[in-house]
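ugh ok fine here u go
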Amino acid sequence: MTTHTPGPWFNDPTQPTVWDVNQTIKIATIEDLPWIEHPITGRRYSDFDTEKANARLVAASPDLLDALQWLKQCTEELIFADGEARNHAMQDVRHALERAGHTINQATGQS
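structure:
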């Protein structure tokens, strides 16, 4: 199995390029997608705002994966826990949900 470049990944909001946190490995350049065709001239051009949003989403991918994996683990522990362990597992699920929400906000530009 191939592994991805470890996160966190970084995106300069003014550019459609995603880098590793040290800015030594280019993860992706999100440009020229999607194409928009001018209704009169027929020329095709890209939507830079969409490119930046796509780059932000790609940059958040490692954090989104981590948050989802942690939420899955916490939920599985909650299912099988009882007594005091269930209370701790419920707290972990709440924290995992908060982390997931924060990560989603970063990925969508809401933070």
